[in-house]
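Quick start: read one record
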Amino acid sequence: MDVFANPSELAQSWYPAARSGAIRPGRIASYPLFDRRIAIYRDRGGRVRALDARCPHLGADLGQGSVEGDGVRCAFHRWCFGADGVCSDAPGYLRPPSRRARAYPALERWGFVWIFNGPTPLFDLPSTGPGRWRAVRLPPQRIRCHPHLVLANGLDLTHYEALHGMVFTEPPMLTASSPYEVSVTLRGRPRAGLWRFISGCGNREIVARFSTVGGSLAWASVSSPIRFHVVFTGRPDRAGGCLTQTVFLFPQPVSVQWIRGLAIMATLLHDDRRILNTLQFRPRFAEHDEPLRAFADVVNRLGTW
């Protein structure tokens, strides 16, 4: 079964599950992800851990339990599960029952706890590289179409000219730097004077690279006329829509260029959202949709868990 834009499937990929600041030492809570709940906590060393929140005994929410060492003790019957999900103790049993909660790989990046929907991460989250960068997190937004289509929007080369009034100064270049990444490099100028003013490009080109990483994250790197990165991610819901999260990464120190970067993306996202909120996807890729087709192939190869 195809996974791309399929509202019944959750691809193996990294998903932001909670704010890092909400996961306090010694506390546990559960958070929704698609059709499941994930119990997230910090172990005694401060490392974030994630387990399927449904206790493998009778299905109680482990998020109502307590942290014990590196594991979790369920509030319902006091069974204890280690960070690997294996039952390590059960009151009244000489030997712990052979039960195991699904354990998710977890890490922290850009102020969020990310979990990988799979037994082992297939790829890493992108990195800004050297230098000091400041993360600016926008409030989450709901869009009424599948997140794969929201993320793939940056790979839709012809819509930059048709919808956003861009003129490419060089043909966009499609690359696949890894089995799980699809990238396009773009060089162009906006037609409208207001766009040129907002971007601050004047007679200079806008130079950017847009990449999808796995099936739930996109990474935009703008190198001219200003320098910044943007992380886009989307979590699907059962209705076929998604909850999106956008994080800007600006070089330190604070400057007016931050405002320009936010204005550029706000203008683009406003125009895109108007279309995406009413989109009813039809998988009819045309000749110039090769980046979209490549992304769909990556998502289908990822599979589910």
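The mean pLDDT is 92.
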